[in-house]
TrEMBL record:
This is Malic enzyme. GO terms for molecular function: malate dehydrogenase (decarboxylating) (NADP+) activity; metal ion binding; NAD binding. Divalent metal cations. Prefers magnesium or manganese. Pfam families: malic, Malic_M. Residues 96-255 form the Malic enzyme N-terminal domain. Residues 265-517 form the Malic enzyme NAD-binding domain.
Length: 566
């Protein structure tokens, strides 16, 4: 019977693929309580009698056998009994701590329903109340006092085949500020989406939270972690929710040395540019035809602006000309040349113009075709701004991308109503469909980063990419935009339905592989002829595996039974 090694998760557990049966076999040395207390191995009452006897767990479970389908229904019934989103979050995280396969089966059964619970916007409240709802630790907590012992701490993590590490210092959790180690909910939730949306196996994901003091200490600790990570040069390390100045410095310092990216900068940029590329199919224009005003000049704004200028450059517009089409408004007003205390990143987008304080005045003066909100300033897009955008443009493009929902620059209903349905709208948090008085219904496009980072992550893993360039994210943005159908656009969607996000991520991963081999940057030895099939073969399955107790055979001639006639 042909079998191939799928992976060795720890020194005591490995998985093999049985080609004839089409199933995955788990070989483990673990027994008894170790099995049912391990969320990666536990199947609950779905263990067969044979497995219970072999694994030493017979009698530790009720004398009943149920399928995963029955377990799914029971979870959904229990979920419906919870009184609010925080209770639902706690319930789902508890399930993840008990049975990972079932947890991801639940999430994937209705991604649109569960994503707002396990990630934004509910994860923001969960982080704020992390100390109150803490049940069981997930991931690694590393402090500045652990310098010199990073390798030892990483060794404590039980999984040996880690492919994705998500790191935060908790300094800028969503739009909520510095939450310290309470920010662990972000890398945990982020990596859950790598699995649910992108198919990266959960045992290959490691969440890390840094608990440090000054900015200098953060940078020193990050460098130590990058240098001492034992999982290989093609292990993806994602920076998440670092403060602006640290985020830019670390990205610029490490992007060409390690396999790393910052989702707040590059992931947000890719999903926003994908939305803009889809919107161009409605306006029948090119990217370089547009003037864009950003409300905000932080990580997200800079990342989007950089990728937009790359897209304009690809259309033939010189980069210097592309920069002139992008304007930014921060807490002190319009960013213009000569303004005091501009960072290096902001200086690139400073233009010759008189100083203006209010966004309303900036919009009225510059008459942009696109406004993008990424500053987490609630209701920043006032009624006047939205009406002005509608007066300047036949199809104004308005992106309210701030998270969570309470920080959105405007609601979908406000945008569609005030523009009489002419606006092309996208948001960072989910909004309900909007029906106008004339009967038209619009389904707001949610520009969630989960459209990008799971597919990019899986693609990077699949081809062994060791450096993630901006071209990779532009490739992902173009691929995502191309998956939006004309029907989606007619309904107001600028992104594929969330219900198809696993398929979307797999197609993005295949495009990343194509890019890597085309540009000779893949470290995978042989190029798969069917890249999408290769990617799909790596994707995580929620089907329960069969267990095989650790055993082995001797060569047949050594097992010959000696016999004699009496």
């Amino acid at each position: 019977m042909a079998r191939r090694l799928v992976g060795r998760e720890s020194l005591e557990t490995e998985t093999q693929r049985c080609e004839e049966k089409g199933t995955t076999l788990v070989h483990t040395k673990k027994k008894g309580y170790e099995i049912i207390r391990n969320p990666l191995l536990n199947k609950g009452m779905a263990f067969t009698l044979g497995e219970r006897l072999q694994l030493g767990i017979h009698g530790l479970l009720p004398p009943c056998f149920v399928s995963q389908d029955v377990q799914l229904l029971r979870v959904l019934k229990n979920y419906d009994m919870k009184k609010d989103d925080l209770d639902r979050y706690v319930f789902l995280m508890g399930l993840q701590d008990r049975n990972e396969k079932l947890f991801y089966r639940v999430i994937m059964s209705n991604v649109e329903r569960f994503m707002p619970i396990i990630y934004t916007p509910t994860v923001g409240l969960a982080c704020q109340l992390y100390g109150h709802i803490f049940r069981r630790p997930r991931g690694l907590f590393i402090t500045i006092h652990d310098r010199g012992h990073i390798a030892a701490i990483l060794k404590n993590w039980p999984e040996i085949n880690v492919r994705v590490v998500c790191v935060t210092d908790g300094e800028r959790i969503l739009g909520l500020g510095d939450l310290g180690c309470h920010g662990m909910g972000i890398p945990v939730g982020k990596l859950a989406l790598y699995t649910a949306c992108g198919g990266v196996p959960p045992q290959q994901c490691l969440p890390v939270t840094l608990d440090v003091g000054t900015d200098n200490e953060v940078r020193k600790l990050v460098q130590l972690i990058l240098e001492q990570t034992k999982y290989g040069m093609d292990c993806l390390i994602q920076f998440e929710d670092f403060a602006n100045i640290n985020a830019f410095r670390m990205l610029n310092k490490y992007r060409n040395k390690f396999c790393t990216f910052n989702d707040d900068i590059q992931g947000t940029a890719a999903v926003a540019v994908a939305g803009l590329l889809a919107a161009l199919r409605i306006t029948k224009t090119k990217m370089c035809d547009h003037t864009i005003v950003f409300q905000g000049a932080g990580e997200a704004a800079m990342g989007i602006a950089e990728l937009v200028t790359m897209a304009m450059e690809k259309e033939g517009l010189p980069k210097e000309e592309g920069l002139k089409k992008i304007w930014m408004v921060d807490s002190k007003g319009l960013i213009v040349k000569g303004r005091d205390q501009l960072t290096h990143e902001k200086e690139r987008f400073a233009h010759e113009h008189q100083q203006m304080k209010k966004l309303e005045d900036v919009v009225r003066e510059l008459k942009p075709t696109v406004i993008i909100g990424v500053a987490a300033v609630s209701r920043a897009f006032t009624e006047q701004i939205i009406r002005d955008m509608a007066s300047f443009n036949e199809r104004p493009i308005i992106f309210a991308l701030s998270n969570p929902t309470s920080k959105a620059e405007c609601t979908a209903e406000q945008c569609y109503t005030l523009t009489e349905g002419r606006a092309i709208f996208a948001s960072g948090s989910p909004f309900d469909p909007v029906t106008l008085p004339d009967g038209r219904t619009f389904y707001p496009g949610q520009g969630n980063n989960s459209y990008i980072f799971p597919g990019v992550g899986l693609g990077v893993i699949a081809c062994g990419l060791q450096n993630i360039t901006e071209e990779v994210f532009l490739t992902a943005a173009e691929a995502l935009a191309n998956l939006v159908t004309d029907k989606d656009l007619a309904e107001g969607r600028l992104f594929p339905p969330l219900s198809s996000i696993r398929n979307t991520s797999l197609k993005l991963a295949a495009k990343i592989m194509e890019f890597a081999f085309e540009h000779n940057v893949a470290s995978l030895r042989s190029e798969p002829s069917d890249k999408e099939a290769h990617v799909r073969s790596l994707a995580y399955s929620t089907d329960y595996d069969e267990f095989v107790v650790d055993s082995y055979r001797w060569p047949e001639d050594c097992m010959t039974v000696q016999a004699c006639k009496l």
